[in-house]
Amino acid sequence: MKDLAALKDYILQVYERHRTNHEGQVTTYIPELGKANPDHFGISVVTAQGQEFSVGDSQQEFTIQSICKPLAFLMALEQHGRETTIKHVGMEPSGEAFNSINLDRLNRPFNPMVNAGAISVAALIKGASPEAGVDAFLKRLSLAAGRDLRIDQAVCASEAATGFRNRAIAYLLRNFDMIDDQVDHTLHQYFSQCSVLVNSRDLAMIGATLANIGDNPETHAEVFDMNYIKDALSVMLTCGMYDYSGEWAYNVGLPAKSGVAGGILAVVNRQLSIAVYSPRLDDRGNSVRGIKVCTDLAEEYGLHAFNFTNFGSNFIQAL
């Protein structure tokens, strides 16, 4: 069995293997995100027991963007239950770009991982006031990360100023009663959620909290209701990597979510989480280096959900 020292060595190897990869482009459709340094690259791994290791630019902050979506979905389930929540958002992969305006046959967004679904979910958790909903979301993510997080107000303002397509999606959802008439309130919640600042270590700790059935493995704070974590992980596996989700499930086989700022979070249930930050994106909006790192780790350690070797299932005992 490979131990923690071997894992650290391997992560260093993977970092060195991919840090000179300059494929992909920094996103510019949200102007503030276009200011990112394309060479930034950080990897963090945190186990369900709280062991952690990071390499590279792991302390570099970036906005969480779409990685907020499964966490918001989890909070909606906690607040409203499954029956009510799925009246507002479906569970099926869309096979389309993350900003698609298409709805399913019930006039719902296809799933919580695309923008339409995330906006519908934001309406469910937005709170009594714009400040209250954002504050509640930020506090929950801070508990999961193990430190106080904050909103990047410049990115939030940039998203609000240029988010015309998201506004169109929101009004389409309002037309079909998927969200209520407080459209601006809902969009403020959504834009703010996407603008939470994290680093790769924060993301890995949030993922480890999911892997550890809802408890932060370092602080032992009870963060998420374990009864709904499987819902969030399930849609991450099937829908979390935009229109690359099918290939990701086939090749990597882990619940994951990417964001257009360059983050990727992958979760190995009951074992660990992997977080990568690299803002060079492919044409589907996923971090190029992030995909390569997760693919290498999944192959080396047998982490695919349907891997049949003993090593993957017993990985955590080796740590």
In short:
Helix content is 45%, strand content 9%.
Describe the structure.
This protein is of the alpha+beta class. It folds into 2 domains: 4-61 and 200-318, Beta-lactamase; 66-194, DD-peptidase/beta-lactamase superfamily (Beta-lactamase). It contains 12 helices and 7 strands. A 5-stranded antiparallel beta sheet has the order 2-1-7-6-5, sandwiched between helices. Strands 3-4 form a two-stranded antiparallel ribbon. A hairpin with a 3-residue loop joins strand 6 (263-268) and strand 7. The chain starts with a helix and ends in a 6-residue tail after the last helix. The relative contact order is 0.19. The model is unreliable at 310-314 (pLDDT under 50).
State the total count of DSSP E strands: 7
Estimate what percentage of residues fall within beta strands.
5-15%
The CATH fourth-level homologous superfamily of the largest domain: DD-peptidase/beta-lactamase superfamily
Number of domains: 2
Please list the strands of the largest sheet in the order they lie side by side: 2-1-7-6-5
Through-space gap between termini: 9 Å
Mean pLDDT comes to 94
- List the total number of helices: 12
Major sheet summary line: 5 strands, antiparallel
Tags for this model:
single chain, 319 residues, alpha+beta, Beta-lactamase, five-stranded antiparallel β-sheet, two-stranded antiparallel sheet, 7 strands
